[in-house]
Specification:
alpha/beta, Rossmann fold, Transcriptional regulator containing PAS, AAA-type ATPase, and DNA-binding Fis domains, 26 strands, 5-stranded antiparallel β-sheet, ATP-binding, Beta-Lactamase, single chain
Length: 682
């Protein structure tokens, strides 16, 4: 018989492969053979299989619910590892002069915010931290750098490097493991003392967890910021800068990294933008010394944590024409459409702008649905009345309800004493644009349906009902008919918002628009694009659509060059090019997709296996290896990640969660046709 282990089973889940060995070595050194230890890599690309453990450790808070669902032991205990920094290692930073600018160097951006917030919790707020994770910008002006236990990037210009060491697994967690494994207090005290120099200089465990939760929330918001077409800034209630998007950097041609974690008043520009609005929100105007004008908006977007903590989103939308305050920035003439597919959509939108029907705009993220909504309003008889836009996916259910319907004074914790008028009421006579309507909760859908039927609003906490005259334009990147079948979207609301439906095609289906959009994004000036670069823009599938194309152009503009080549593209596009062909800049290159490359042959096999068997990484590795392809599991993970980003595959929970999307099936068919064509030419 095989003996059954009676040791305490401890499983650690991490999201970075590099950290797996680090935690494994620490825990083995501390607990030796007293526990049965496993460190596993969590990836959203591969469904998590059921596992057995007595104690489950995790490094990021969102994993807890996922792990609890998959652990077969109902008595398992879950601990956030409470990673923090040893206080004594921070002394060198505390000795720096006030206002010193220094880089925080790390392999990726995820833990940089956690580290920055930990510095603040230790009272280190006299220096200006600048996150560095390999961005392709000039950082040579910085002479100080902080490393987190390993020199992840070699920065030869740095004159003073401070290594603050690896992050520490909190001793609170280590003691809990020791207690569960029936290890003596003396044994654990000896081990923990050997592990860290001074336990008293650590932050409280619960404070470390709260910092991690806050860091995750900020990271999520920063990711959303870069999906916005307008320059945008995220600040907290104390007006500390939490982050900004690339559009803000490119619009004002300034490096805002040094502002992260700093009060907004340290930047004259950001302070001026903030003061263009009321103290707690609203709209305003800002004009630069050069005469550029902006419509500025600030509003609450989230609350989280054990105590109520507001976050504020500040947007600065360029005003391109000399317009009165009641008019809009964008009109139909601002929409670039050389393709027949997009011309048809614009023609329909112009026709229905003259009606009073509600409109539903469908299409993937980044195609310009809000621009189309602006244009419909600007061409309607409501154009001299307000236009209000709200993203239903950027708010919690409660916050979105108060944003739309308003509230009376003191209606809930954190509410303004004077109350607040909702967007539906303040847009009376005009238009409200509800972006990502598919993200609205079922409860809110009921309120929206009642509003559309009765055209009445009742603020939260008030008995007053007010009649309003508002046209509603909605947008979504979800399949609402599928959502209705799943029960996540009400069919009666769907038919209320969709008497007119406009489907905006993705950029890959209207490639004739790529070149003119790129030209507009690059702006005035004699820019010369190399032939391989032109070929890239025509061939890349642009899963992020127009927004992604504009972001790519903004990145290239930041270098101030007039002659642009593929070397000026962001790293992810250069990786894509290397996968497509070996030597994109070779003078022998005639096409960006000549025949079928080795990488494309691998893509065909992976897409076909997923379509047929919902194959996982290891199954894919075995099949490809048996067919003679030289690939590793890491390479397959990288390819799957790119396929997911390009919309070819979708991964959901469950044993057979990986499947081809319609886009992926078209990609598979195209590659198979290319293979047939190539074989026929040989």
């Amino acid at each position: 018989m095989i003996p059954i282990s009676t040791k305490l089973k401890v499983t650690v889940f991490v999201i970075y492969e590099e950290s797996a060995d680090f935690y494994l070595s620490i825990l083995r050194r501390l607990f030796e053979d007293h526990i049965e230890l496993e460190v596993r890599l969590y990836s959203d690309l591969s469904p998590l299989e059921p596992f057995d453990a007595d104690i489950v450790l995790f490094t990021v808070n969102f994993l807890k619910a996922i792990l609890a669902e998959k652990c077969v032991n109902p008595g398992a205990v879950y601990y956030h590892m409470g990673n923090t920094l040893q206080g004594k290692n921070l002394e060198a930073i505390k000795q720096l002069n006030r206002g010193t600018e220094l880089l925080i160097v790390s392999e990726g951006s995820v833990f940089l915010w956690d580290t920055l917030l930990t510095f603040k919790a230790h009272g280190i707020d006299h220096v200006d931290f600048v996150p560095y994770y390999g961005q392709r910008r000039d950082f040579s002006a910085y002479k100080y750098a902080i490393y987190l236990g390993i020199e992840t990037y070699e920065l030869p210009w740095i004159e003073n490097a401070i290594d603050i060491g690896w992050r520490v697994v909190h001793p609170f967690v280590l003691r809990k493991i020791g207690e569960a494994a029936a290890l003596s207090e003396d044994y654990m005290a000896e081990k923990i003392t050997a592990y860290m120099a001074d336990e008293t200089d650590l932050l409280d465990y619960h404070q470390c967890v709260e910092i991690s939760i806050e860091s995750e929330a900020i990271q999520e918001r920063l990711a959303l910021l870069n999906q916005m077409e307008s320059p945008a800034l995220l600040i907290n209630e104390q007006e500390v800068v939490l982050g900004f998007n690339e559009r803000l950097r490119s619009e004002f041609q300034m490096d805002f990294e040094k502002m992260l974690g700093q009060k907004i008043y340290k930047s004259e520009l950001l302070e001026s933008l903030r003061r263009a609005c009321d103290d707690r929100g609203g709209n305003g105007r800002y004009e630069t010394a050069a005469g550029r004008r902006y419509s500025v908006e600030i509003k609450v977007i989230e609350s989280y944590g054990e105590s109520l903590q507001h976050r504020f989103l500040l947007k600065a939308v360029p005003i391109l024409k000399d317009e009165s305050p009641t008019q809009l920035t964008y009109r139909f003439q601002d929409i670039i459409c050389e393709s027949q597919e997009m011309k048809r959509v614009v023609a329909l939108a112009k026709h229905f702008a003259g009606t009073e029907e509600n409109v539903l705009i469908e299409g993937p993220s980044g195609v310009g649905k809000e621009l189309l909504a602006h244009s419909i309003h600007a061409a309607s008889k409501r154009r001299n009345h307000p236009f209000h836009a709200v993203n239903c996916g950027a708010f919690s259910e409660t916050l979105l309800e108060s944003e739309l319907f308003g509230y009376s004074g003191g209606a809930f914790t954190g509410a303004l004493r004077s109350g607040k008028k909702g967007l539906l009421e303040s847009a009376n006579g005009g238009t409200v644009f509800l972006d990502e309507i598919g993200e609205a909760s079922l409860k809110l859908q009921v309120r929206l349906l009642c509003f559309l039927q009765e055209k009445e609003v009742q603020p939260i906490g008030s008995n007053a009902v007010k009649k309003v005259d508002v046209r509603v334009i909605c947008a979504t990147n979800r399949d609402l008919e599928e959502a209705m079948a799943l029960g996540t979207f009400r069919d009666d609301l769907y038919y209320r918002i969709s008497p007119v439906t406009l489907l905006v095609p993705p950029l890959r289906d209207r490639l004739a628009d790529v070149e003119p959009i790129l030209a507009q994004s690059l702006g005035p000036g004699a820019y010369h694009l190399s032939e391989p670069l032109k070929n890239f823009f025509k061939a890349y599938p642009w899963p992020g659509n127009v927004r992604e194309l504009k972001g790519c152009a903004a990145y290239m503009l930041s270098f101030g060059k007039r002659d642009l080549t593929t070397e000026d593209l962001p790293d992810k596009y250069q990786r894509w090019l290397r996968g497509v062909q070996k030597d994109i800049d070779s003078p022998m290159t005639k096409e960006i997709l000549p025949m079928v490359t080795e990488r494309q042959k691998i893509e065909v096999e992976i897409l076909a296996l997923i379509d047929r068997d919902h194959a996982g990484r290891r199954s894919l590795l075995k099949t490809l290896s048996d067919q003679g392809f030289k690939v590793t599991e890491y390479k397959i993970l990288e390819i799957l990640s790119e396929m997911k980003a390009q919309g070819w595959i979708e991964i959901k929970k469950g044993r057979h969660g990986t499947f081809l999307t319609e886009v992926g099936r078209r990609r598979l068919d195209a590659l198979r046709e290319a293979q047939v064509s190539t074989n026929g030419c040989q």
